[in-house]
Amino acid sequence: MQQDVIASLDFGSKKLSASIAVKNQNDEIEILGVKSCKSLGIEKGLLKNIEKCRKTVVALLKDLEDKTGKNTKNISIGISARKVRITEVTISTILEEKVTKEDIANVLSMGKKSVTISSDETIVDVLINFYILDGKVIHKDILNWKGVNLEVNLTLVIAEKKEIDKYYELFNETKYKIEFIKLNILAGKQIFLNEKNSIGDIALIDVGAADIDIAIFNNGIPKNIASIPLGGNNISNDLAICGDISFSEAENLKKIYSSNYKSIYEDDSINDEIKVGTTKVSKELFYKVTNARIEEILNHINMELKKTGHYDRICSIILYGDGLSYFEDINEIVGNIFEVKAKIINKSDLGIKNSENITSLAIAKEVYDRLNLLGDNSKILTSDSLEKKKVIETENVDNDESKNHILKKFKDFFEKIF
What we know:
35% of the residues lie in helices and 29% in strands. It contains 13 helices and 18 strands. It has helices spanning 50-68, 101-113, 161-172, 184-187, 189-192, 232-243, 247-257, 261-266, 283-307, 330-337, 347-350, 358-374, 406-417, and strands at residues 6-11, 15-23, 29-38, 42-43, 46-47, 74-79, 84-94, 121-133, 136-138, 149-160, 177-183, 201-207, 212-218, 221-228, 273-276, 279-282, 314-320, 341-344. Strands 3-2-1-6-11 form a 5-stranded mixed sheet, sandwiched between helices. Strands 14-13-12-17-18 form a 5-stranded mixed sheet. Strand 13 and strand 14 form a beta hairpin. The two termini are 34 Å apart.
């Protein structure tokens, strides 16, 4: 693999997050920089206003390029699970002598052709789950391994075509082009799952501002995805309506008081009202409205998990995202709702300043792994405009030890708690 610049962009309803990474001198992914900004044009996980979103995306990527000193054209984007489905297939091929990049690329192409999709759908990604080489199951890369019969278990990510076309249209009038499309919740595996904690059925749940994405993995293989159009914004909306204040005022109150709203409510020595500037609401109203909506959101998630048919086999549930993670005693509420071991992760758990950048980091790592395995052969073509061969610019990369091992740090943390 050449020392390519890997740029990733997470499209969220509240925030856009971008990362730039490279392969360093130690053959590891090195994160050069991350940056986020307010999201415009994305509603409940779907791209609604292309022009508004384009302006913020271009400005964000330019700022990140200036920050890192790296220019990029190819962008790997992460999207919500809304209007997306997955299916699993196993593809077989005969090897000439050993496993080559061409063999694996051919299997990916065969996998795409093996499923039937409607004219309204498009395959946006193909994930390699594991290999079977001459009857032996292998979960690591097998390039150059000798063998005769190769089977590859794949997960195909299939999305509504008109929704994906919007993202291509967004980049049409810019210098950037989409290289890969990733599902944010599936990329979460890069952060939250490792060999030790992925045994059995694990649920990853990303609770955002306006939508909740769910993925269930069995031994690290995605089995089910879902999306619920709810999130942290619903709490702010309820506070705005019940407190007769604006949404932005409710957001400010939530941001300041979420970490100790229960303690304030239970402390009789504190005034009955909480305020930010001239905005005031009853601390009882804040507590009861917030708690009611948090419990409703968690119950919706619980019901969605039960619909999957995996619920009785789920070993643990990992919740993350800024929609709920900063509320006081949130893990206690989570524990009361779910019937299996569950943990909600926040930035203090991870020891980072800004958890909203986690997904763009995960996308960068997933793209790095794919490029490291297959290079240009790994492209998933989703439109006629992608039929042309892309040229990836290369640059000299300096090693910066302080920015290495971010993803390893996350995985070490989850190894301890699960």
